[in-house]
UniProtKB/TrEMBL annotation:
UniProt subunit comment: Homodimer.
Record's protein name: FMN dependent NADH:quinone oxidoreductase
Domain annotation Flavodoxin-like fold: ranges: 8-194
Family note: Belongs to the azoreductase type 1 family.
Functional note: Quinone reductase that provides resistance to thiol-specific stress caused by electrophilic quinones. Also exhibits azoreductase activity. Catalyzes the reductive cleavage of the azo bond in aromatic azo compounds to the corresponding amines.
Positions contributing to FMN binding: 16, 101-104
PANTHER family noted in UniProt: FMN-DEPENDENT NADH-AZOREDUCTASE 1, FMN-DEPENDENT NADH:QUINONE OXIDOREDUCTASE
Naturally occurring in which organism (per UniProt): Psychrosphaera aquimarina
Cofactor(s) required for function per UniProt: FMN
Region forming the signal peptide: none
Top-level lineage group: Bacteria
Keywords associated with the record: Flavoprotein, FMN, NAD, Oxidoreductase
Gene transcribed to yield this protein: azoR
EC number of this enzyme: 1.6.5.-, 1.7.1.17
Recorded catalytic activity of this chain's protein: N,N-dimethyl-1,4-phenylenediamine + anthranilate + 2 NAD(+) = 2-(4-dimethylaminophenyl)diazenylbenzoate + 2 NADH + 2 H(+); 2 a quinone + NADH + H(+) = 2 a 1,4-benzosemiquinone + NAD(+)
């Protein structure tokens, strides 16, 4: 491990229904392990499949829009869901996301997380020129695992969406590591390629 004072606070988010056996979970965890070989790393883990968040409701949004001193006990509890997730995100400088592809899109559990961390006046603000993200100086590395080959094609609905929604809250330094064709005969070769990409990405963070 690097013994310098260069500490990286890493938020690892996984959402595979297959847990530790999921390709995206395994590879994202491997990437964080590679980082720990090069830096002093403090990792916060959030498994959105193991501990799913409830879908966003009007009552919860209403709690956000109520002044803190005026909230009911229920509204305090509802607002705390989003507040705690945003605080967790703010406290980490590097975001590592294990991203499986389900039916050409992101897992619904991850969308629920996005719905909680994208809040006007807190993680972005509206200006006369449009929305401006408020979470700055953060890097996101997305380890995207897919059963087929989608990167760079119109069927990849994940990549642009993730870049757009993260930029919306101010995270514009976004990098993808793709592990594709994992349900096809070339799986082993493509996992090797993904691991090589992880090595290069980890080295570039020094």
């Amino acid at each position: 491990m690097n013994t310098s004072t260069n500490v990286k606070n890493v938020l690892l988010i996984n959402s595979s229904l297959n847990g530790e056996q999921g390709n995206s979970n395994r590879l994202a965890s491997e990437f964080v392990a590679k980082l720990s070989e090069k830096f002093e790393v403090k990792v916060t883990e959030r498994d959105l499949a193991k501990d799913p968040l409830p879908h966003l409701s009007q009552a919860e949004m209403g709690a956000w829009m109520t002044a803190a001193n005026d909230r009911t006990e229920e509204q305090v509890q509802l607002a705390d869901i989003s507040d705690s997730l945003i605080e967790e995100l703010k406290n980490n400088d590097t975001l590592v996301i294990g991203m499986p592809m389900y039916n050409f899109g992101i897992p619904s559990t991850f969308k629920v997380w996005i719905d909680r961390i994208a809040r006007a006046g807190i993680t972005f603000s509206y200006t006369e020129n449009g929305p401006v993200g408020l979470l700055e100086s953060k890097k996101a590395i997305i380890v995207a695992a897919r059963g087929g080959m989608y990167a760079g094609t119109p069927k990849d609905s994940q990549s642009q969406y993730l870049k757009d929604v993260l930029a919306f809250v101010g995270i514009t330094d976004v990098q993808f590591i793709y592990a594709e064709a994992l349900n096809m005969p070339a799986k082993d070769e493509n996992v090797i390629l993904a691991r090589q990409a992880m090595d290069v990405t980890a080295e570039a963070l020094i």
